[in-house]
Specification:
Distance between the termini: 97 Å
Strand content: under 5%
Oligomer: single chain
Structural class: mainly alpha
Number of strands: 0
Number of helices: 1
Shape: rod-shaped
Radius of gyration: 34 Å
């Protein structure tokens, strides 16, 4: 962590605390970046699941409408004079 500073005068202990603080900030930035990437991946998976659920929902809606129409057509056929 301790670097040699070209124009640094005085004790190295004056600069070590800054080096440690800088390292902590960089580590926190890396952790934050990884957390955001992970969050983005999870959001993509959730969006994919929502799309699949939406497809299933529309399939159910079309199935119900088809059954209702089929019953209506059957009722019309039965009511028709022979």
């Amino acid at each position: 962590m301790s670097e040699t500073r070209p124009h640094a005068t005085g004790s190295r202990f004056l600069y070590e605390s800054f080096d440690v603080a800088t390292a902590r900030i960089e580590a926190n930035e890396r952790v934050s970046k990884l957390q955001f990437e992970s969050l983005g991946e999870r959001l993509q998976r959730i969006e994919a699941m929502i799309e699949r659920l939406e497809k299933r929902l529309w399939l159910a809606v079309y199935s119900v409408v088809g059954v209702i129409l089929a019953q209506g057509v059957a009722a019309i056929i039965d009511a028709a004079p022979k």
